[in-house]
Specification:
The complex is a heterotetramer of chains A (384), B (387), C (187) and D (154). Chain B is built from 15 helices and no strands. By secondary structure, chain B is mainly α. The radius of gyration of chain B is 24 Å and the shape is globular. Chain C has two domains: 38 residues, no CATH class; 119 residues, Rossmann fold. In chain C, the strands form two sheets. A three-stranded parallel sheet of chain C has the order 1-3-5. In chain C, strands 2-4 form a two-stranded antiparallel sheet. The chains are: A alpha+beta (384), B mainly alpha (387), C mainly alpha (187), D alpha/beta (154). Chains in contact: A-B, A-C, A-D, B-C, C-D.
Chain lengths: 384, 387, 187, 154
């Protein structure tokens, strides 16, 4: 009997299907940005993935070594163009820390407001990307419609739609404009209502939910070890938010909840990672309301910017901030001149992309865009 | 030979049914129109030729009954195709406008409220370079397009618009339409292979995967309907619905058939063969210019056939309950078909694309039992003597 | 009847056919038929092409977000028949909206070659026009026109959606000129 | 081995590091921040200790700074329970650019190390895949070194 099994096994071996490498990118509709994903597929299943980045590398860090401190701010806007304010905020915060100065209260609150507006707008861009990745253009267009209102707030605050060039070392460029607080509260109220339209469209549709449920599980340990940060990490049970646990710029004076899912089970799937961002948008609305109240309490004539020296004393320091996509860090080594000696940017996506191998293993091809959409690609900051 | 001098002597406007060679057994409006047109054209030509060369053979041949049937059939073909084509353009226009409105946009706005957009697209694909990638299997690459487009045109022409607007009136009309309709996925599979592109290969395989999942419930429902009607003849099926549409007793069947019809013409949410985010353009990735334009046209032709089938089988075709036939049954039929297409657009706007394995699941675990339940209901109705 | 006197009446070899058809085309070109046909058909083709511009769905950098915003409800570029296609074979316009690094340069050229004729290239934003803020980078190309011929430049950093739509309307004029110039029997 | 802290305070970190590794030098501390310096030979052991015993699960950054005469590798390590970060600096001499790889401790350090190698030329020993990541494969210089001048710097 045992002998007769041998030819059968051989036949099975011969019937093995070949694995195939499919290369997605650099021009591919799923890559929101410019990167390549090499996928090894076995039938409909992915068995391996190899992300390739660097198509947008322009030596950002090297170029900053040739600019004044003040002239780097517009460049930081172009690091992550979905949420440009967070990076200029982070940069200014890092330099202020190196200078050892404290900025006015009002500037801190304005930065918080601007940050959260950017967070909502970036998450809406992400939602739009989820819509196209899932094959539903309605979600894309509806969230783009909502995003325009927040871009209008940017215009109202500083005159530019996306690359705002607004924070300054030692404060912000200008005070809040007239009626800005009224407009922002109206926009936020309106947004909270309109958001439910999109949520009904997605969460009430079993197709949407079943496409995200039960695929690409990540455990808490995996997330921490691989360096996956941001909403994706909080969906998998890591209870950590820099705004709460390592507060900067008066976030400790604001009362808000950090949405975390699966605190007990410590395993999260794609749908959890999706839910976190939706929750975060509502939390951001809350933060905006509180911060606007604080700005109003400070009065119109409160200072919003202080003079700072142009030269930064020698030494190394770093600032840390909760980006819409995760943990971003700027590491500044200065040598006492008016130009940074070295400025390193830690972009959350850079590490998150490296996790795509673990995220894509074992899922179907059709799920790969849905899984990777939860990273929320922004290649400008990844490649730098 | 009679001496013909006046033009009106040459154009006689006889009833085509008195022509012994008429291929149609019953009234056929497009054929009547085509016959009348040919009488005008052929008569005028014959008159002109007769003026120059009296008593020649050619003018006699031109007004011969057999010649008239031949040319009338040619014009008839053109007429049927043009009507199907215009219906498809209207479908396309409706899709763009309705989808635009669903998404808070205006849709396209080029000429005549956006209707000319598809004409512009067509002209543009005409202008584009006809590229054939270097490493494709050229024969299959080109022939598959022709077959897909040709079959789709054929099927679109075969759907009758009313009992007087049809191409053939076989007793097995429904089956023939379905048979031609189900052929296209094979050619999609072959063309996906021929393109030497991994995306299109996966797309082609997915088209085959899609086919085995919805074709069976779809055929069961067609069998159910023909069981109720007692024949596969489209006329019989429609005539049976002059009081109650089949959508009321066969509601389950309607739902299942509607979604299967969406899957059959590979429209979103069942467009896994050309799933944009995964497979760029799926099995059409390497097609460019005119070929791609024709493929898009074929897609919409198949869409309009799907809608027509739903209208015939469940919504009473060209009849209105208790009134029966109207003066313009074609318009009644088209309005119903467009309503079904409108529903399809709404579904497209609301639902995300489903996964291939989900389609298999839905096809075999949901649609299949529902179709069988539907069949059971039909059997009970038949036994109860209601139909 | 001696068929050898009329070899062309039965069949032609490929070479013979080519010389014969070349002669006919040259006759047509020299007698002004081309001009007439162009004059008659040019506006139709121009109208078709300019109302059905299909740019390549390819987002590089900041301007890609504005490209997405341009097709969103507020700006709605689909009114002009602009639909983004993902496969370069089905597009007419290569829209480059970002800086071009040395790593993407060969791919960009390849994408350009893959688009069937007639095709146009639009450089959107400072980076694609001249390198923009990355003028001294070691890894960036200073301008798209160093790789492919560019038809329309849309300035801005990033260019606003309205600027982008304006740029595409300029491109429509260019398309019209292209077809007015005539392309009958150009192949 | 020493006891395991899940959520160590700054003082505890300082104490644990200096008692277990006499060569580690604590440069400065502030609220939720510890800055330490360690010699190259024990960097891997220190990282292992920080990961296992101080529960620093997350490696935020691995990068380098070029001080012309020597290079400094910087590790920024984070704790997920109380938000404390350790800034661990390791000096690497200019003529022998080798340092132990920490990818076996934190997988997240993988790409950071690849990036640091391609931009600075610091070789991480035992790295699973030390290839060019951001720049084209045919680059043969290390652009972030101070010796490489950009066009406008010349």
């Amino acid at each position: 009997m045992a002998d007769s099994l041998v030819p059968v096994l051989e036949a099975q071996e011969r019937m093995d299907t070949d694995k195939m490498w499919v290369i997605w990118g650099p021009q591919h509709p799923f890559s929101h940005g410019l990167w390549t994903l090499k996928l090894q597929i076995d039938g409909e299943f992915c068995t391996d993935a190899d992300p390739i980045v660097g198509y947008l590398h322009r030596g950002w860090e090297k170029e900053t070594e040739n600019r004044d401190y003040a002239r780097i701010i517009p460049m930081t806007d172009r690091l992550c163009y979905c949420a440009s304010m967070t990076y200029s905020h982070l940069y200014c915060m890092t330099v202020e820390k190196a200078l050892g100065i404290d900025i006015p209260e009002k500037a801190k609150y304005i930065r918080i407001v601007a940050d959260e507006v950017c967070r909502i707008q970036s998450h809406l861009m992400w939602l739009a990307a989820v819509g196209t990745d899932m094959g539903n253009l309605t979600v894309f267009l509806w969230s783009m419609r909502e995003r325009e209102y927040f871009l209008d707030l940017n215009v109202k605050l500083c005159g530019a739609r996306m690359t705002t060039n607004y924070p300054r070392i030692g404060g912000v460029r200008n005070d809040t404009t007239e009626l800005f607080d009224r407009d922002i509260l109206r926009t936020v109220d309106r947004f909270e209502k309109a958001m439910w339209d999109i949520i009904y469209l997605i969460d009430d549709s079993s197709v949407f939910v079943s496409r995200m449920r039960n695929i690409s599980f990540l455990t808490r340990e995996q997330c921490a070890n691989m360096g996956l940060t941001g909403p994706a990490m909080r969906g998998c049970g890591v209870d950590f938010d820099i705004r709460r646990d390592d507060p900067y710029d008066n976030y400790d004076k604001i009362d808000f909840e950090v949405p975390v899912l699966n605190k007990d089970t410590k395993v999260g799937d794609t749908y959890d990672r999706y839910m976190i961002r939706i929750e975060e948008m509502f939390q951001s609305c809350d933060i905006i309301r509180q911060a606007v109240k604080k700005i109003q309490a400070l009065g119109k004539n409160a200072p919003y910017r202080i003079k700072t020296p142009t030269k930064v004393p020698a030494g190394t320091t770093f600032g840390r901030l909760e980006d819409p996509r995760g943990e971003s860090i700027m590491y500044l080594a200065s040598d006492g001149t008016d130009k940074p000696y070295r400025l390193k940017v830690r972009s959350p996506i850079f590490t998150n992309v490296s996790c795509s191998k673990a995220m894509c293993k074992g899922v179907r091809i059709a799920d790969v865009p849905a899984v990777l959409a939860q990273i929320d690609m922004c290649l400008g900051e990844t490649d730098r | 030979m009679v001496e013909y001098s006046s033009l009106l002597d040459w154009i006689r406007f006889i009833d085509p049914n008195t022509n012994p060679y008429t291929p149609f057994l019953s009234d056929n409006l497009p054929y009547d129109i085509a016959y009348g047109l040919w009488e005008i054209i052929g008569g005028t030509l014959a008159w002109l030729v007769n003026l120059l060369f009296p008593n020649n053979v050619v003018s006699a041949w031109l007004i011969d009954e057999r010649t008239a049937v031949m040319f009338a059939l040619l014009i008839f073909m053109l007429l049927i195709f043009i009507v199907a084509f215009v219906v498809v353009l209207l479908n396309l226009w409706m899709e763009r406008k309705v989808l635009g409105r669903l998404m808070d946009r205006r849709g396209t706005m080029i000429g005549m409220k956006g209707f000319l957009q598809c004409v512009a697209d067509g002209l543009k694909t005409f202008m584009k370079e006809n590229t054939i990638p270097a490493k494709v299997d050229k024969m299959t690459y080109i022939w598959c397009v022709s077959l897909i487009v040709g079959l789709s045109c054929l099927v679109a022409c075969m759907v009758p618009l009313s009992d007087r607007w049809y191409v053939v009136n076989y007793d097995t009309g429904l089956l023939i339409i379905m048979a031609f309709y189900a052929l296209a996925p094979f050619f999609i599979l072959v063309s996906g292979w021929a393109q030497n592109n991994k995306y299109s290969l996966i797309g082609g395989i997915r088209a085959a995967e899609l086919m085995i999942s919805y074709e069976v419930p779809m055929l069961i429902i067609i069998a159910t309907i023909s069981l109720l009607a007692g024949s596969f003849n489209i006329n019989d099926i429609v005539n049976l619905q002059d009081t109650v549409w089949f959508v009321i007793p066969m509601f389950l069947g309607f739902i299942v058939f509607f979604f299967c019809a969406i899957a059959e013409c590979e429209r979103p949410p069942f467009d896994i063969a050309e799933a944009e985010t995964e497979l760029v353009e799926g099995w059409q990735t390497e097609y460019a210019g005119m070929k791609w334009g024709l493929i898009m046209l074929a897609d919409y032709l198949r869409g309009s056939v799907s809608c027509g089938m739903v209208a015939i089988m469940f919504l009473g075709g060209w009849t209105i309950p208790f009134i029966g036939g109207t003066a313009l049954p074609e318009i009644v039929f088209l309005i119903k078909a467009w309503f079904v297409f409108f529903l399809m657009i709404i579904v497209r706007g609301a639902i995300a694309r489903v996964r291939p394995d989900q389609i298999l699941n839905i096809g075999w675990k949901v649609f299949m039992p529902l179709a069988v339940i539907n069949l059971a209901i039909a059997v009970f109705l038949k036994m109860g003597g209601i139909y | 009847m001696d068929m050898s006197l009329y070899p062309h009446a039965v069949a032609m070899s490929a070479d013979e056919f080519m010389t014969w058809s070349d002669a006919i085309i040259n006759d047509l070109l020299s007698t002004g038929t081309k001009k007439t046909v162009d004059k008659l058909t040019g506006p139709i083709w121009a109208w078709g092409m300019k109302n059905s511009m299909h740019p390549l769905h390819w987002g590089l950098a900041c301007c890609a977000l504005e490209m997405a915003a341009a097709s969103a409800p507020r700006y709605d570029a689909e009114r002009y028949g602009m639909i983004y296609r993902s496969s370069p074979r089905q597009t007419d316009i290569l829209l480059v909206n970002g800086w071009i690094s040395k790593k993407i340069r060969p791919d960009l050229r390849r994408l350009y070659e893959m688009i069937p004729n007639p095709k146009w290239v639009v450089a959107m934003g400072e980076c694609a026009i001249s390198g923009g803020p990355w003028y001294d980078s070691y890894n960036c190309i200073q301008g798209l026109d160093q790789i492919v011929p560019v038809d329309v430049y849309i300035p801005g950093c990033p260019a606003r959606p309205d600027a982008m739509i304006d740029g595409f309307m300029l491109l429509q004029k260019k398309i019209e000129d292209y077809f007015r110039r005539g392309n009958f029997m150009e192949d | 081995m020493a006891e395991v802290y899940q959520s160590p305070s700054v003082d505890e970190i300082k104490q644990a590091l200096t008692s277990n590794f006499p060569d580690v030098e604590i440069i400065s501390t502030e609220e939720r921040r510890v800055k330490a310096k360690c010699p190259r030979e024990i960097s891997h052991d220190v990282c292992q200790f920080i990961h296992d015993n101080l529960t620093f699960e997350h490696c935020s950054v691995v990068t380098a700074v070029d001080y012309v005469d020597h290079l400094m590798v910087v590790y920024l390590l984070a704790n997920y329970y109380n938000g404390v970060m350790i800034d661990l600096n390791v000096d690497v001499p200019d003529d022998d650019l080798h340092i132990a790889c920490v990818t076996d401790i934190w997988q997240g350090a993988n790409w950071h190390e690849r990036e640091t190698w391609e931009l600075f030329g610091i070789v991480f020993d035992n790295h699973p895949r030390l290839e060019r990541l951001l720049t084209p494969q045919n680059y043969e210089f290390f652009p972030f070194r101070k010796s490489y001048k950009m066009r406008s710097q010349e």
